[in-house]
Amino acid sequence: MPYKNAVLDDKELQANLKAINPKFGELCVRVCGDVWGLPLIDQKTKALISIAVDVVNQDHVGPGSPFGAHVDMALKHEPPGTRLKKCFCSCVPTPASIKQPDALAP
User: What pTM value is reported for the model?
Assistant: First the structure.
């Protein structure tokens, strides 16, 4: 079931952030919870934007990367392979997507 707030409603995410560093984790929960609680953009779209920014900034690998958390947030709001797959294809051109843009469509 999708969360109303992908940060404040996800206790597992909060525990993982606090496990890295309790004070920093609490700060992340408060600040990100406020941002993800803003009603202008739905939670699913916020997660997809976050993934796109992670990939474009090459911030999707290494320790402390938020990429995994952003993918988990997106998957909690829709089944794998829908808009999430298109988001990846838009951020990272592959030979198949360049030659045939619809080749990777679900």
Answer: 0.61
Residues in the chain: 106
pLDDT at 52: 79
For the stretch 58-67, what's the b/e string if a residue is b when 16 or more beta carbons lie within 10 angstroms of its beta carbon?
Answer: eebeeeeebb
Handedness of CA 68, 33, 43, 54 (dihedral sign): negative
Mean pLDDT, rounded, of the chain = 75
E-assigned strands of the chain?
Answer: none
Q: Is residue 4's pLDDT more than 60?
A: yes
Q: What is the chain's percent helix, strand, coil content, to nearest 5?
A: 60, 0, 40
Kindly state the average pLDDT of the residues 8-25: 88
DSSP notation for 55-74: HHTT-SSSTT-SHHHHHHHH
Interatomic CA distance for residues 10 and 49, integer angstroms: 19
